[in-house]
Records
---
Amino acid sequence: MTNVREATYDLLRENGLTTMFGNPGSNELMFLDRMPSDFRYILGLHEGVVMGMADGFAQASGNPAFVNLHAAAGTGNAMGALTNACNSHTPLVITAGQQVRAQVGVEALLSSADAALLPRPLVKWSGEPAAAADVPRMISQAIHTANLDPKGPVYVSIPYDDWAQPAGPASTHLSARVVRSAGSLSSEQLEWLVAELSGATNPVLVVGSDVDATVSNGLAVELAEKLRMSAWIAPSASRCPFPTRHPSFRGVLPASIAGIATLLAEHDVILVVGAPVFRYHQFEPGEYLAEGTSVIQITSDPAEAARAPMGHAIVAGIRETLTALTGALEQSARPIPAARRLAPAGPDGVGALRPDAVFEVINAVAPADAIYVKESTSTTSIFWDHMDLTLPGSYYFPAAGGLGFGMPAAVGVQLARPDRPVIAVIGDGSANYGITALWSAAQYNVPVVFIILKNGTYAALRSFAGLMKVEGAPGLDVPGIDFCAIAEGYGVAARKAGTRIELEEALREALATSIPMLIEVPTEPTNPFH
Ligand code: TZD
């Protein structure tokens, strides 16, 4: 008779979850026992890194990724990373090994009391099966829950004596199940939307990460062109949903209440697609909207629709809605919005490069299909201004601002997309939260180019301190870290690049090799609010 372990591997295989990200302990060994040869296991040396790799892999592949953690301790280490996966609607099937059933009640070492409660509220759903025979069905439930809109992480705790038990009769039906959602607008809803947009005199498009997640970037361009709208990326962007060199593109909205109201004041209708309204950050209070401006939000996430402080919302599939809308709208005769003019990088500093110069070099040297994983917090808007990102799936950033995503996510993205070069642009503060991803990159031969922007400080926090009138706060500098030595210690080749020419040479070398490489670049601190 098929046991729970065999039935689970069958189920994972049928659903395409043959790459596992994990960090094992005694509770997981029975599951990993004789892992079938068509599965691959990517070991992360810390659970934050395991989660970051899985998050990058799932976002870049568009399919759920499978994660295996160790009990409560492993889950705890993973939870910071869950904040990002939760915000980015990343479909993750997270499992954690539980002590044997007979030893959970006595709280034996590495048992997880109230295991299903532990990861909430950062997962869409979580559970621990009431009986061994129900494990495969529950993992099936987890896969479908993670993958239905709004996608997101889910969590199952599994007592380790369950794996050898007979699978229940339901397990024979699970592998063949197909569960899909269909999120189209009704004809009345579409008519209303078309009337609102056609009747607007100066509408504007704001696109969010779920446009990129559903590979609807081309539809967003079509929509902007049809209505001759300028287009912004929603604030706190974690993906790139609109080509940054398209004439309609205006940039990423600032993440503040007053900032958005002011910037969009000239528009009568703001159409927000695939984003929350809005993911604010710095507190600059004021009116949410200027007089005469209204918002219409299209999102696949009911919670996102419900919590918006203003505007109307429609909960529907992003791709389906954009397809219907572009088909139903007439071509506008308004003048095409004038393209913005971008300033070139400023003069080079002495002993350190300006971030805009770094991005100019990267943009000039890297191929057009490069994918960027970014975690350098003070240089975000400079990056957007200097980079030509055209293809879907070209940019990933921690969606909840939780650092420790960048280094590992770059490894996960590269594993999912071996056909495109992956360049991780990481701050010298951020790098430390996920630094052991270097080891996974080296061991699994994942040819990510890691570029560390070494400004010696938490520059974003210094800027926040200025904004909040905080003086003399401790703990804002990170001097004395040699990233080349660290990289070499984990088995990754490394170069220092202190000038444009050195950076250009190092980047060309790194892109030409099939091994991971780290480039440490001394940079000048910048203020993101200036
Ligand atoms: N811890 C975690 C897990 N996430 C965070 N966001 C922070 C701490 C706080 N934090 C920020 O929000 S930005 C930042 C910290 C520590 C500085 C990152 O420094 P960096 O980048 O060198 O990577 P910049 O460009 O110098 O700001």
---
Amino acid sequence: MESITFRRPVDLHVHFRDGAILDAVVPFTARQFARAIVMPNLSPPVTTAAMAQAYRQRILAAVPDGLDFTPMMTCYLTDQTDVADLLAGYRDGIFAAAKLYPAHATTNAQFGVTSIAALDPVFVAMADAGMPLLTHGELVRHDVDIFDREQCFLDEVLAPLLERHPTLRLVLEHITTSEGAAFATRYGSRVAATITPQHLLYNRNALFEGGLRPHLYCLPILKRQHHQSALRAAATSGLPNFFLGTDTAPHMRELKEAACGCAGVFSAPVAVQAYLSVFDQEAALDKFEAFAALNGPAFYGFAPAERQVTYVRQLHAVEPSLSVENDEIVPLFGGGSVDWTLRQQV
Ligand code: NCD
Ligand code: ZN
């Protein structure tokens, strides 16, 4: 196949940050995607409908003229979440979902939830309203190995949570293990999962190839090869439980290449191309549209994009970095190339 045409895709998991970084990164997502689900882990986090509405305006102001792009906002759950504001925000179309960060699990998760069971009244209200819960699925405890955090979270936290709330709808964000993929299908249509390009492309060896690779460090961390294979099988399965969520997470180079580096891979400039090469390698390009443009909208309950895009098989150089203020952000494949190019839209 020398070209592929599909409905404009949707990125169900992005980090846009704020200020100068937001202005620099939003155009990359807006060029390739019709919509995106925007993560709320700013500092301070987006915890109210009013904050989400203001953040949405700042994102829209960074979308280049002529591009049709819809950001969809999420609420950062905390120990103090105001259920009335959360539900009003959902009913008014400001919030598409709420995000659960266990305290200290990842970037800006210091504001996260310390006791998940204590949030049960919030989950009851969300289940009644049909509002999806998005989870950063890692159990962070000193006796749990970093490579086992996802599986422990599924067993110890999420399975009981789903039992306590039999109608709650859930997205496991950025799954990284075979157990995560199996979990997403076990509950039928009420549980789904996003999968990032880096977890499809790499396993944990890539973190240490020839030396330490800070630009591939993200959370949840890359896992063993058999997990990578399970994720590739899940993404290309055509099952409605799996959809595209890049987890594009820009950090300044200075903060990535540091004694204590930040977690996150900035994939927005090459996201669609990265997924396409995986589906191509798996001989599953016929399943790409479902993963990238249909399954996510179906789960969230909005219409897929009407317009289509075409990518052609054509080598395309990737900029080594993106200048932002006095620093830069290094993208996935920075200084390398991708096999697919977005055909100029007329
Ligand atoms: C994300 C970030 O930097 O905001 N980092 C990451 O490694 N994925 C947070 C997250 O999604 O865990
Ligand atoms: Zn994320």
